[in-house]
Amino acid sequence: MLGDGTLLVYCSANQALRCAPIAERPGAGLVISPYQRDEAGLLATAAYLLRQRRFEAPLLLDAARYAGRARLPASAPFNPRWLRRQRELGVPVLTDSGYVDSGDEPGLAGILHRAAVLPDTIAVLPLHPIWLQDRLHRTVLTGHIRAAGAPVALVLEANRDPFALPGVVEGLLAVLDCGVPTLLLRCDVSALGALCHGARAAAVGTVAALRHLTPRPPPAAGPAAGQPHGFRPAAPSAVFRPTLSYRRIGAIARAHRRHPDPDLFGCACTVCDGRDVDWMTALSDRDREVPAFEHSIRVLQDLRDELLGTGDWKQSWTARCTDAVYRSRELGWDPAPMLRHWQRQLEVQRQPGMQRQPGMQGRTGPAVARLTA
Ligand SMILES: [Zn+2]
Predict the structure, then answer these.
(1) For the region Disordered, what residue ranges are annotated (predicted)?
(2) What pLDDT score was predicted for residue 301?
(3) Distance (Å, rounded) from C-alpha 209 to C-alpha 141?
(4) Can you tell me the distance from the alpha carbon of 184 to that of 176, in angstroms, rounded to the nearest whole number?
(5) How far is the CA of 280 from the centre of ligand 1 (A)?
(6) CA 38 from chain center: how many Å?
(7) What is the pLDDT of residue 231?
(8) pLDDT tens for residues 114-126?
(9) Ranges of each domain in the chain
């Protein structure tokens, strides 16, 4: 069902019908999370997509109980009904895991080992970023992942892009070296880096709040903080292909006025259809949201096809990152911090004596074969 290098769209249930056509192409698919914690609504949407709408791309359902003010801790038991409903729908089964805080090794081990004894189940690991950033945490994390042997789906907590944080790229590569199929949920452009380094699939969020796990707001922030009715979403951003980064449409338009270069700003995606990408400035923030995410997903899908169509995925990704740093500077922007972290990986791996152990990606055990059948 999920092939190597699947680029998924991650959306909430109220966006799923709009996202379905975008996710129905080779090498793509859809991950849906509940809208306003309504799991029944999510399951009904999935049933409609599969049975009436005949959606044929990979479909996954994320209960996202690790998110929001009322999030569950990692020690919370899985809900057998949630697992059973996914099996009945015939979708790959994701655990409804709680959040793994920085010091919660028992919680981390509990999720992995409880998932490992369930048939064909992917352990969702919603992680405090220290688990990838810090060497000791990373060793503990990869030790438990190896010992459990269950496929994992990572969700990383950060205020913005987790891959901008030092050590997160290294930590992800360490997980990818564990020899278990690895998915990445709720990410942005780094989804491409993950796929080029052996992730089975990676899911890009439609809106900023679904491109990472937002830390729980402090209680002092007021009763409405973090709740949908009290939440003012950020103005929509779109992927700007030359700099491999999400940028506000207004910022792209301002850069365009300073650098009227048609090669940089023209976009051939199905939404822009040859127009300059800042055509969306003519729309209100609300009306921009849908074309901004459609454009972004289309651009990322095309980039994925180009990157995975080359002989050396890692080298091609690094070359893209290098070019994006150059283009960012040319436009007077700070390069996205994740670009430097990804670029550094190939340098580290090429230093004598610093070769990572040969990865076991591609090793397909029986559980994996069933997941990917
Ligand atoms: Zn476009």
Answers:
(1) 351-373
(2) 96
(3) 26
(4) 11
(5) 10
(6) 21
(7) 47
(8) 999 999 999 999 9
(9) 6-228, 235-350
